[in-house]
């Protein structure tokens, strides 16, 4: 309580209670505004509940990321069992998968002449994952005793050789090879070979790390071989392209794969071999896979796609730098060639779709055992389950929304004031507010319009189909009192329609229009051409869309109430209304406190006057000797 409030010290009045009673009218006005604001918040929550129901239905049945339940594309109807047989037995030569767009459920393959392959090159050996000595006979003589330590994949052995009688590099290589086999076993034959062109020795073991280390008993051996201790077949990994191949950055501008130079790929002479491999493989326009295989000491390059139309073409400069010249291996691409239903088909891939059937060619077949038979059967029960689920969830959405539209408000139950809540238990508050929230969106025109449009969309004819929804056993319930707008299914008629008129059932739900949803001028045409699923999705979008149309409008319910965690959370009609209500409440509180202060000031002056009168009276009585 402020210090200037003197509360009945002289008069004996309960000033606080008097002021509180005097302020009841102002408090009541504030309470009414607070109740109106609370009611607006509840109304927003109710609208958002409707939005959530609609968006939840959309997410389950119209989401391209959920193909098994996406009724707009027909993928929800793609439940099939496929069999591929040859001479009465299952075969893996080819596999198939059906789809809702199939023209026929049965096919035969007479032969598969060849499968599709990629254009592939394998280089000559590059000599980068080996240890090569200098010309060991260059001086005309060799040391009588050689000794060094040899490590292969971490296993280290001492190799000592008396060279008496060895006259050339071939004899030296043969003698060392025998010593290595003696120490490591015969599986290690060929680790060392002679190079007659250079007069050198070459150490290498495919798939293994070979390291040569100095022996303290004969350090001069390493000097004579021209090697440093610790030299390894893995040393190429730490070298750049210039060190490995003598390539300069300038050279790279003419080294091209499918017209793309190594410069375009961001490489230079200081790039590593790993960077080279990654750059060529990952550069989209090159369209190849490229890599170095240390086991074979070769490069390979393969076109990303199969078929003769897709090549791995290299400039001469690239070929020469990486061993793809004379002596390299080139395996040209092939197309898949097969005969389906008597027609010879050529495809650049082994996986393709033809008349709604997806084929995967796995091997060749010469036709000697007769036709490969393909039979695709609809899993009618699965498809029926999907449709039943669609109808059940549609009924649930419609039922819950219509229930809110029909709720009668309980006008005697208003939002509780703070003072009222303080006098009640949590359970009492919960029960009260449950009744107070009834009928907040009763007979809302935007929601009713959406529900009516949905009902109409189910029954209107879809252009290009000879069915309507009632033709497949789905119609509106006769129980209009409790389940108005909801659907019932005649499962026998639905099964019959799926079995005998599958393509038309799919089209009834998933037919598409060339007109875009955003094309407001083509809205009527889009509606006529679009299947039931697309129509329902469009109508729900008209209510819950967060994006703007060409007129700058968002969904009708979104403009009214907004959606949490989006820009519309605060940019909507009801949020604007609540901000206005809050401003009025704040203004009323300011007025309230000002008036309250005036009352306290008035009573304070009264108390001061009474105190003065009391003092004067006491003074007078004192003077009179009383």
Architecture overview:
There is one protein chain. This protein folds into four domains: 37-74 and 382-558, no CATH class; 80-116 and 335-378, no CATH class; 134-226, no CATH class; 239-331, no CATH class. It is 39% helix and 17% strand. The protein contains 18 helices and 24 strands. A hairpin with a 4-residue loop joins strand 9 (192-195) and strand 10. The strands form seven sheets. It has a six-stranded antiparallel beta sheet with strand order 2-1-22-4-18-19, with no helix packed on it. Helix 2 (24-61) packs antiparallel against helix 16 and helix 11 runs antiparallel to helix 16 (532-544). The chain starts with 14 loop residues before the first helix and ends with a helix. The protein is of the alpha+beta class and 626 residues long.
Keywords:
single chain; about 625 residues; alpha+beta; 6-stranded antiparallel sheet; 4-stranded antiparallel sheet; 18 helices
Largest sheet: 6 strands, antiparallel
Q: Kindly report the oligomeric state of this protein.
A: single chain
Strand content: 15-25%
Q: Tell me roughly what share of residues is in helical segments.
A: 25-40%
Q: What Rg, in angstroms, do the CA atoms define?
A: 44 Å
Q: Please, how many helices? A: 18
- Mean pLDDT comes to 92
As laid out across the biggest beta sheet, the strand order is: 2-1-22-4-18-19
Q: Based on CA inertia axes, which overall geometry fits?
A: flat
Total domain units: 4
The tally of strands reads 24
Structural class of the helix and strand makeup?
alpha+beta
Q: Give the low-confidence spans.
A: none
Distance between the termini: 39 Å
């Amino acid at each position: 309580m402020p210090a200037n409030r003197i509360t009945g010290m002289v008069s004996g009045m309960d000033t606080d209670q008097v002021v509180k009673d005097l302020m009841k009218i102002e408090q009541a006005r504030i309470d009414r505004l607070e109740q109106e604001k609370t009611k607006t918040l509840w109304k927003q929550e109710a609208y958002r509940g409707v939005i959530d129901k609609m968006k939840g239905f959309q997410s389950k049945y119209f989401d391209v990321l959920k193909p098994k339940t996406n009724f707009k594309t027909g993928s929800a109807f793609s439940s099939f069992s496929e069999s591929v047989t040859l001479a009465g037995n299952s075969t893996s030569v080819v596999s198939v998968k059906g789809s809702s767009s199939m023209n026929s459920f049965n096919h035969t393959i007479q032969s598969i002449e060849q499968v599709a392959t990629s254009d592939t090159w394998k280089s000559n050996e590059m000599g980068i994952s080996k240890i090569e000595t200098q010309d060991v006979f260059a001086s005309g003589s060799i040391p009588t005793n050689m000794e060094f330590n040899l490590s292969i994949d971490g296993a280290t052995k001492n190799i000592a050789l008396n060279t008496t009688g060895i006259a050339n590099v071939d004899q030296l290589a043969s003698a060392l090879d025998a010593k290595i086999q003696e120490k490591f076993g015969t599986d290690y034959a060929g680790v060392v070979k002679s190079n007659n062109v250079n007069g050198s020795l070459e150490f290498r073991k495919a798939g293994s790390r070979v390291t040569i280390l100095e022996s303290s008993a004969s350090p001069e051996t390493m000097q004579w071989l021209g090697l440093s201790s610790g030299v390894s077949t893995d040393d190429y990994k730490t070298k750049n392209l210039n060190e490995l191949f003598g390539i300069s950055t300038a050279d790279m501008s003419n080294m091209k794969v499918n017209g793309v130079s190594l410069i375009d790929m961001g490489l230079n002479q200081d790039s590593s071999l790993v960077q080279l491999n990654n750059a060529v493989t990952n550069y989209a326009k090159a369209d190849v896979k490229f890599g170095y295989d240390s086991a074979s000491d070769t490069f390979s390059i393969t076109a990303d796609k199969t078929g003769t139309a897709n090549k791995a073409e290299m400039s001469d400069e690239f070929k020469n730098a990486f061993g793809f010249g004379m002596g390299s291996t080139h395996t040209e691409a092939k197309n898949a060639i097969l005969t389906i239903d008597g027609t010879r088909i050529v495809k650049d891939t082994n996986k393709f779709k033809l008349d709604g059937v997806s084929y995967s060619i796995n091997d060749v077949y010469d036709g000697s055992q007769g036709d490969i038979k393909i039979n695709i059967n609809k899993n009618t029960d699965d498809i029926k389950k999907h449709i039943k689920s669609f109808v059940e969830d549609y009924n649930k959405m419609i039922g819950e929304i219509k229930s809110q539209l029909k709720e009668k408000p309980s006008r005697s139950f208003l939002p509780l004031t703070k003072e009222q809540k303080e006098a009640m238990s949590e359970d009492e508050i919960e029960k009260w507010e449950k009744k107070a929230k009834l009928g907040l969106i009763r007979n809302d025109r935007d929601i009713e319009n959406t529900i009516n449009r949905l009902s109409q969309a189910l029954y209107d004819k879809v252009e290009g189909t000879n069915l309507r929804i009632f033709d497949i056993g789905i119609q509106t319930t006769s129980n209009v009192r409790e389940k108005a707008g909801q659907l019932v299914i005649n499962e026998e008629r639905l099964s019959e329609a799926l079995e005998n008129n599958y393509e038309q059932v799919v089209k009834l739900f998933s037919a598409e229009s060339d007109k875009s949803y955003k094309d407001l001028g083509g809205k009527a045409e889009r509606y006529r051409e679009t299947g039931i699923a697309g129509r329902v999705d469009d109508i729900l979008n008209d209510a819950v869309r967060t994006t703007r149309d060409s007129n700058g409008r968002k969904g009708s319910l979104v403009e009214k109430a907004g959606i949490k965690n989006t820009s519309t959370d605060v940019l909507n009609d009801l949020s604007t209304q609540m901000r206005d209500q809050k401003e009025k409440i704040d203004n009323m509180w300011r007025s309230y406190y000002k008036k309250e202060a005036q009352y306290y000031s008035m009573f304070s002056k009264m108390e001061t006057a009474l105190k003065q009168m009391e003092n004067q009276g006491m003074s007078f009585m004192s003077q009179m000797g009383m």
